[in-house]
User: Fold these one by one.
Assistant:
Number 1:
Amino acid sequence: MTEHYPVVIEREDNGTFSAWVAGLPGVYAAADTAAVAKRAIRSALAAHLSALNALGRDLRPQADVVVLRHDTSARTRRERLRFVGLGALMGKKTTSAKAEAARLNGRKGGRPRKTAVKSARGR
């Protein structure tokens, strides 16, 4: 069974990094760099899960992860906050190879024919 745990890593005012698992009070770590904080929170969560398993308890994090988007209209200068999906954090990035394959493929979907890909690479 695969489980996902939302982890927040933030830079503090003093330059250190804090990491904590949303919905699991007491599972946190702090370090001088973000990389070390990530390793530390992984260890902290592993220890927490191991302790719960030894006690025979089931883990059910109590967290709902949402994203608030902040927009400011250039024309009216009106600010707006609205909830959006988690995909908004990833952005809309497409590699050039993927874009070329989509152009060759048209709107129908699926993989382009091998001859079309070869001819596109030969250009």
Number 2:
Amino acid sequence: MEKIKRDDAVHLLSQVVDPEMGADIVNLGLIYNIDIKPNNDVNVILTMTSPMCPVISIILADVQLRLQSIPNVGKVDLELVWEPMWSPEMMSDDLKYAKY
């Protein structure tokens, strides 16, 4: 079985958009850790911009579906955490300084 590459997971997660923020969850800084086990199980620790975010379930479902689409993926576990609390400083520089 071919080992899943972290870059492939990051690429897929960069396609998940927070509809309220209009930006992807990778550049927003919502992904805290991606751990790919030797058996291709994937564990992701992530947060949201706010515990009151009304689209949490939509974002989590999108993350789950995209990661499960990776060939040879094992179990996909998502851990939603609130510490450290997200702040705009966590965004990528490209997103912080983007001109809209």
Number 3:
Amino acid sequence: MNILITGVGGQGTLLASRVLGKYALDNGLDCKLSEVHGMSQRGGSVITFVRIGENICSPLIEEGGADIILAFEKLEALRYAHYLKERGFLLYSTQEIMPMPVVTGACKYPDDIEKRLPEKSMGIDALALAEQAGNSKAANSVILGAFTKIMGLSYDKMKAALLGCIPAKLTEINEKAFEFGYNA
């Protein structure tokens, strides 16, 4: 399975990739990760490739090679949609984070993103669900919960992988966020 995770710096894309990697390894599968940070510390685009299977040799995913894209921001979903396979699935957060060219007035945030996304796309208000769970930064756990349900993966095993990658003090909020995403 080839998974592309994208978002804006600070949204937890790297943590999400580590959770998926841990899930794979805990279940006897090989996994390779590759991170592209860019200007992530300044709110820029971040992408991570996660490849899971029996014997993975390279961490990179070619354009048109992703089985699933997990996008933590709506414009990032559009920016990397060309990586999706013809029969792939794109799960995205409906959150909108204005990039610097929009903030400065040089560009306009597109208002037709949903129309331009692949047919097999689903948006989820991960930010609202994370806030309901107790912390907006848990939106990545919401997306992981929804991903787990959509892919028919083990709820308990994915939750265990998530909790194995976060500090103990954040367990309760992330458990709730994961559950809200799973049920959404």
